[in-house]
Design a protein that fits this description.
Length: 153
């Protein structure tokens, strides 16, 4: 993803969060922008979104999908936005990069970057996301239940 596309995706993410008008949302945004790698982190080490900014892209995609899901209409729009965009907040500062060896197309060994888990807060996936979000804002019961469910899928 080029820098311009990344900036637009990150700006869209932030603006969606701001539409929730929740107390603490600006502090949470500042935390994500200044103290984490959320906007450049992968979504996983080797599965979906295992590339730079995969977490950002995955979060935006989940938000789009949830807005299309008729079952999600029972929740307020702010719940959908918070859950979709932040269900994997626990993956910020979660991955590191190491170098590994592999053979290339010319059958030559080469180094390549590989994502590895560097978990500094070993909670369960959903619980950790709820814990981090709760440090900045109060979550409704719907958000608590939905975030835990979404993060565990």
């Amino acid at each position: 993803m080029d820098k311009e596309a990344h900036k637009k995706l990150a700006d869209d993410f932030v603006e969606l969060l701001r539409t929730t008008n929740r107390d603490g949302i600006e502090e949470l945004i500042r935390y994500l922008q200044e103290e984490t790698d959320f906007f450049t982190a992968p979504a996983s080490a080797k599965y979906h979104g295992a590339f730079e900014s995969g977490l950002l892209m995955h979060s935006i995609n989940v938000c789009a999908e949830l807005n299309l899901d008729p079952n999600s209409k029972v929740y307020p729009s702010e719940t959908i936005i918070i859950v979709a965009l932040l269900h994997d907040i626990c993956k910020a500062n979660f991955y590191g990069v190491e170098m590994r060896n592999r053979k290339n197309e010319q059958d030559q060994w080469e180094n390549y970057p590989f994502y590895v888990v560097n978990d500094q807060l070993p909670y369960g996936h959903g619980e950790k996301s709820v814990y981090i979000i709760s440090s900045f804002m109060k979550l409704t019961r719907d958000c608590l239940l939905y975030t835990s469910d979404a993060a565990d899928e």
